[in-house]
């Protein structure tokens, strides 16, 4: 058979298979759990315009909260999708040591470089336990094996050099959240470390030389000043890379998540007038306000009085989590509490969006916006464990900005709700966009009415 004939036959059979899948799918003979030839479990995503998080929710609803999924056969995509609170507790908490963000995570989130959002563990929260963990890990994986080897083989080591490597690694871990890998047995040269020493040397000689002389040497690029100029370039590059990664990470962590939460919160409030009324009533009572009074710009401490607002924000985060899913990779083989087997390297996607809409977790009214569910009979805040309310994730990589975000949202939401009423523009459709953030596809267009 000629190449052309083979190509035509392949094309024809591919078109036939895809058409068949399309016809069956349109005629609704299929469920999200159906695994199709060629496209695996992804037929609904390919052949209908279902939003990906709604697809995950319907699929998990049918499969008992956890499903083993395969993408189109030629892609090699395979992962476990879960919204089972027991699994989430297990993966992020009790057996978290077997799960990490993984190599693929780094590739996928390449734009975040080596910043904290892709770093493997938390380095900021709980300073003392961090010092303990980091120091012990560096002793165990770095310094002690080098000394063991020196003792076994009988060669000498430079303790000043080793100590310098040790403290550099520890400082980089605290300050930047990164490993330089300079404490391995082959003791690799670390250009960044050498650069610091070259600059220190130049600074020392500047104390002894006339100003004009060292400036001339620097201009000519000779001697220790020449070395120092080169060293500065190395340091600048290092710091630039760190800052760039760090800024992109913090912008994503702080800007995108909180802005998404605001958009859904304001949409929910504008479409639930009775809840808007209760929010305003709470503000009146908490800050002794009457209709038409100017906003008093209360202190951040005073925000803790706003229990109903807290509930409304948590509801918005439950129903519309800014990060609708999260990803982990199994380090070793394991069995999840749901009974699903995961092999080494298996990807697990936690659907936070589905979890917030799961009847067995939130009750029959799980799809309703009910701030009251976060308020106890005594009027206090109901605290929900992170395996049930996962908007800020759980375990070692949970959100470090949670308190900051909640405070920021309360301060802004309270001031906006007191000063204005929003009316969604007629005909404006509020749909989710396809992104790692739960953005609104067309934004939130509102008419603004002043209340004050
Ligand atoms: C409504 C607002 C926010 C939501 C819903 C949110 C959600 C999350 C989630 C789900 C993660 C975990 C990612 C993972 O498990 O891989 C995370 C991590 C993180 N968040 Fe937030 N976040 C919010 C606001 C903020 C703010 C305002 C900041 C700080 C400016 C921040 C800083 C961070 C950092 C540094 C991490 C990484 C923690 C680590 O890996 O050790 N977040 N956030």
Automatic annotation (TrEMBL):
Superkingdom of the source species: Eukaryota
Binding site for heme: 399
UniProt keyword list: Heme, Iron, Metal-binding, Oxidoreductase
GO MF entries: heme binding; iron ion binding; monooxygenase activity; oxidoreductase activity, acting on paired donors, with incorporation or reduction of molecular oxygen
InterPro entries per the UniProt record, alphabetical: Cyt_P450, Cyt_P450_E_grp-I, Cyt_P450_sf
Required cofactor names: heme
Family: Belongs to the cytochrome P450 family.
Protein name: Cytochrome P450
Taxonomic source organism: Kalanchoe fedtschenkoi
Lineage, top ranks: Eukaryota, Viridiplantae, Streptophyta, Embryophyta, Tracheophyta
